[in-house]
Amino acid sequence: MTGIATLRANQSATIDATITAISAVRDVTTARGPSQVADATLTDETGSITLTLWGEDTRRYQVGQKIRITDGWVKDFRGKLQVSAGRSGKITVQA
């Protein structure tokens, strides 16, 4: 398991964290067509990072849930690190 504080851009990671905030859902147009996006703030004992949620995932999670991102992708977006499920990762709610 990786602590948020140790994450670096352009790497895959498995993270356990708690959702502490979720932004409003925004409509966007991507190279793949129209979609929806929202930003969730994830926090663990080492720090916090933005989780980018796309499509159905924008409504699937709630503040206070503990989640595990398995094989997520970390990137630098406008000077800040973000994590997403990416193409091969998955997000699961922990009990």
Q: What is CATH's topology name?
A: OB fold (Dihydrolipoamide Acetyltransferase, E2P)
Mean model confidence by pLDDT: 94
CATH class: Mainly Beta
How many helical elements? 0
How far apart, in Å, are the first and last alpha carbons?
17 Å
**How would you classify the helix and strand content by structural class?**
mainly beta
Q: Shape, please?
A: globular
Strands, count? 7
Count structural domains: 1
In terms of quaternary structure, the protein is single chain
Tell me what the structure shows.
- The structure is a single chain.
- The chain has strands at residues 11-22, 26-30, 33-44, 47-54, 66-77, 80-84, 90-93.
- It has one domain: Nucleic acid-binding proteins (OB fold (Dihydrolipoamide Acetyltransferase, E2P), Beta Barrel).
- It is built from no helices and seven strands.
Sequence-ordered SSE layout with sheet pairings:
Elements: E1 11-22, E2 26-30, E3 33-44, E4 47-54, E5 66-77, E6 80-84, E7 90-93
Parallel strand pairs: 4-6
Antiparallel strand pairs: 1-3, 1-5, 2-3, 3-4, 5-6, 5-7
Task: Give a short summary of the structure.
The protein has 95 residues and is mainly β. It is 0% helix and 61% strand. It has strands at 11-22, 26-30, 33-44, 47-54, 66-77, 80-84, 90-93.
Features:
61% strand; OB fold (Dihydrolipoamide Acetyltransferase, E2P); mainly beta; 95 residues; globular; five-stranded mixed barrel
